[in-house]
Specification:
11 strands; binds glutamine; about 450 residues; eleven-stranded mixed sheet; alpha/beta
């Protein structure tokens, strides 16, 4: 844990992967606590990890990478944090992200952009860019993230690590700062599916503090991995491939080739490839970018200068205090989402945009259900291209389009995993995505474990 902290400090000027790194006193206090605790055994005892700074923590400030939470210190831990602490992990710090998790490049952070360890002129992906970069740079073996539209899988792909986005409801959202509540789901980054399995087993399961938490049994994912056959472990499994995804406009040929190579490797492991169709897939981005901002505009109404963090220094009356606090506290991307969300929720536009997008959400969910009648898992690219240069995408819509392969999964609440499957000509990592039916995490992890 001390070495992890030292490495986090040493790489901070180059990567900016952290917003807060544990100081000596915090680390010493945690190590002393652990030494005397019953949690001092078990697979995660003493393991250094990092939390995306969207999870509330009592040990560290929580910022959501926003000026708006300046000075905020949570009086409680997120359930994900509580459970990992109970398993004996040591938190070395809170990682950088896009402000309130809105973005695909970790470029919209009040604390400055995070950089990709493979090439520091490149973005690490987002919004959980700091967590992906921290694992890729060998600072920590594992980190938490959140995935509302791809924020675990996309940075995992850009940084060459494994990232799991569980089924909506499998992991508690308690203490995870809300962006779009019907999409938000906590996830994990690690080098391997095996490590992801250990983490998921620790954080998954019913939590009465989250009203959308699913009351399902949590299998021992790591034990399931240990049990898979060594010879043709995926015999009898059908993996669906949507040709339309591989023929998509703007898909970098090297990404397509690497995903096709991953498909062949799954075949060698015993799986059968089947063609599937996801006819409404192209509507995923427009539907998401109506619904997620709508939910965000409501969730972010709580930042009023009274209850949390930042308050403007200059105001004459209450109304001015609210408006100036929000004008000064939120960054441009967050303001854009609040404006879009408020617009699509307003009388006269609700039916044209929000209701329509909800109907599309249902159609997309049905697409996946129909596809899973013919296959066990679906294989797709994670991102259309490898990591772009910091500052390269200045048009927000261009950035939104980078989510084309990840967002449908969130609209349908499905679990999905991103794993490394190759490199482009510039040496940047490429990821493949496997998607499973609801609560199919054990299969996702087993398939990637077999692949790795
Ligand atoms: N890029 C998407 C967005 O900006 C997804 C972000 C996320 O998953 N938190 O909304």
């Amino acid at each position: 844990a001390r070495a992890a902290c030292e490495r986090a400090h040493a790489l901070q000027p180059t990567l900016n992967a952290f917003i807060t790194i544990a100081d000596d006193a915090t680390l010493a206090a945690r190590l002393t606590e652990l030494a005397g605790a019953s949690q001092a055994s078990g697979p995660l005892a003493g393991i250094p990890i990092a939390h995306k700074d969207l999870f509330c923590t009592t040990e560290f400030p929580t910022t959501a990478a926003s000026k708006m939470l300046d000075g905020y210190h949570s009086p409680f831990d997120a359930t994900v944090v509580t459970r990992l602490k109970a398993a004996g992990t040591v938190t070395v710090g809170k990682t950088n992200l896009d402000e309130f998790a809105m973005g695909s490049a970790n470029a919209h952070s009040y604390f400055g952009p995070c950089r990709n360890p493979w090439a520091t002129d490149r973005v690490p992906g987002g919004s959980s860019g700091g967590s992906a970069a921290a694992v890729a740079a060998g600072i920590v073996p594992a980190a938490t993230g959140t995935d509302t539209g791809g924020s675990v899988r996309q940075p995992a792909a850009h940084c060459g690590v494994t990232g799991l986005k569980p089924t909506y409801g499998l992991v508690s959202r308690w203490g995870m700062i809300a962006y779009a509540s019907s999409f938000d789901q906590a996830g994990v980054f690690a080098r391997t599916a095996e490590d992801c399995a250990l983490l998921l087993h620790t954080i998954a399961g019913f939590d009465p503090l989250d009203s959308t938490s699913a009351a399902v049994d949590v299998p021992d994912y790591a034990a399931a991995l240990a049990a898979i056959a060594t010879d043709r472990p995926l015999a009898g499994w059908r993996i669906g491939v949507a040709q339309s995804f591989l023929a998509a406009d703007g898909l970098q040929p090297e990404v397509r080739d690497a995903v096709l190579a991953a498909a062949r490797r799954y075949e060698q492991l015993g799986a059968t490839l089947v063609d599937i169709h996801l006819p409404q897939a192209e509507l995923a981005i427009p539907a998401y970018y109506v619904l997620a901002p709508a939910e965000a505009s409501s969730n972010l109404a709580r930042y009023d200068g009274v209850r949390y963090g930042y308050r403007t220094a200059h105001y004459d009356d209450l109304f001015e205090m609210y408006t100036r606090t929000r004008a000064e506290g939120f960054g441009w991307e967050v303001k854009r989402r609040i404006l879009m969300g408020t617009y699509v929720l307003s009388a006269g536009y609700y039916d044209a945009y929000t209701r329509k997008a909800q109907q599309v959400r249902r159609l997309i969910t049905d697409d996946y259900r129909n596809a899973f009648a013919a296959c066990d898992l679906i294989l797709t690219p994670v991102t259309p291209t490898t990591a772009w240069r910091v500052g390269e995408k200045s048009d927000p819509v261009e950035e939104y389009l980078a989510d084309v392969f990840t967002i449908g999964v969130n609209l349908a609440g499905l679990p999905a995993i991103a794993h490394p499957c190759g490199f482009d000509g510039a040496g940047l990592p490429i990821g493949a995505q496997l998607i499973a039916p609801h609560f199919g995490e054990a299969k996702l992890l087993a398939a990637v474990h077999a692949y790795q």
